[in-house]
């Protein structure tokens, strides 16, 4: 059912794997209706906009760049909600972490986004 509300939380960290999460989130938002992006720093600050987006979502997706899992952990700690879909760019998609935040390709971001879109659509049906 495509009218389910979806909230995407990306870690957006300082490494390439963190930055690719932001690109992936934007690609998902462009491709799926009723999808919003949550500001991760707003979660521990309990910012109304961030919390409202999470609380109003039928499906919450946490996209983490590395095994530290900042998006996932902050979501659970400050909202008590586990993500319906969680992913780790390094372990789930074999992207090697680099301190260079620009060392990823648009093709990598597109491949990951398309996989997550498929997973989201499965939950929507």
Automatic annotation (TrEMBL):
Question: Which InterPro entries does this UniProt record tie to the protein?
Answer: DGC (IPR014958)
Query: What Pfam families does this protein's entry cite?
Result: DGC (PF08859)
Spell out the protein name for this chain. Zinc-binding protein
Q: Which organism is it from?
A: Odinarchaeota yellowstonii (strain LCB_4)
């Amino acid at each position: 059912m495509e009218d389910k509300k979806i909230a995407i939380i990306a870690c957006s960290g300082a490494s390439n794997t963190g930055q690719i999460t932001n690109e992936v989130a934007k690609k998902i938002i462009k491709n799926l209706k009723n999808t919003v992006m949550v500001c991760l720093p707003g979660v521990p600050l309990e910012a109304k906009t961030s919390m409202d987006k999470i609380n109003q979502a039928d499906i919450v997706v946490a996209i983490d760049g590395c095994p530290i899992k900042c998006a996932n952990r902050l979501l659970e700690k400050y909202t008590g909600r586990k993500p319906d879909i969680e992913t780790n760019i390094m372990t789930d998609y074999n992207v090697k972490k680099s301190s260079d935040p620009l060392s990823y390709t648009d093709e990598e971001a597109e491949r990951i986004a398309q996989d997550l879109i498929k997973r989201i659509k499965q939950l929507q049906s």
